[in-house]
Design goal:
single chain, alpha+beta, Immunoglobulin-like, five-stranded antiparallel beta sheet, 5 helices, elongated
Length: 200
């Protein structure tokens, strides 16, 4: 289930994240993979035309024995996308992808300010949360073409990683204050590798 979080609820959510956020850098760099959490991806169709929107479906399955809680912003990808053509080359980034990845090509003050503005614009009133109970799964559509320019025909391989998960011992609908009592930070989880075919 994907649930929009009202603007008034974001204060409570951010308070929860602030409580666990102190270990974020440590978790991202040294956390063990989330046991019992898996992710699979597949293209939404067999072939795509060059220049059109390209989506893959991601399915996150929770067999951890705990509830899986994700907070994300739809316009700011929560997924790390790795894509390569048949020569092993990564396609050119879009302007949005360049800012998101903080690439050297746009890693300057203007780009940093724009990335911060994008984050703020999306964060206020647009945060969403997904709760995945034990034994259940959640589905996402990931727009690969939002971050990469895919206008050249050929075969591309793609996989997706989610770096951090919150595993919590509480039921769906519980408040962030309740969730904060028993939180386990875990990650990353990497998907299978899928192949995308692009034609003229």
């Amino acid at each position: 289930m994907v649930t929009s979080i009202p603007r008034t609820s974001l204060i409570a959510v951010w308070s929860f994240l602030a409580m666990i956020g102190t270990c974020e850098a440590q978790v991202s760099n040294g956390a063990q993979p989330a046991r019992g959490i898996s992710m699979s991806i597949s293209p939404t169709k067999v072939t795509f035309k060059a220049g059109e929107k390209i989506f893959v479906k991601a399915v996150i399955t929770n067999q951890s024995g705990k509830s899986l809680w994700l907070l994300f912003f739809p316009d700011i990808s929560s997924f790390v996308i790795r894509i390569q053509d048949d020569k092993g080359k990564t396609p050119q980034e879009t302007a949005h992808g360049c800012r998101m990845h903080m690439s050297a090509a746009c890693n300057n003050e203007d780009a940093a300010q724009q990335a911060a503005k994008d984050t703020l614009d999306v964060a206020v009133g647009h945060a969403q949360s997904t709760m995945v109970p034990p034994g259940k799964e959640a589905n996402f559509l990931i727009d690969i073409s939002d971050e990469y320019v895919l206008d050249q025909p050929g075969a591309y391989t793609v996989d997706v990683t989610v770096s951090d998960f919150n595993l919590v011992n509480f039921s769906v609908g519980a408040s962030p204050e309740v969730a904060s009592r028993d939180v386990e930070k875990a990650g990353p989880v990497r998907s299978n590798t899928a192949t995308i075919q692009i034609v003229q």
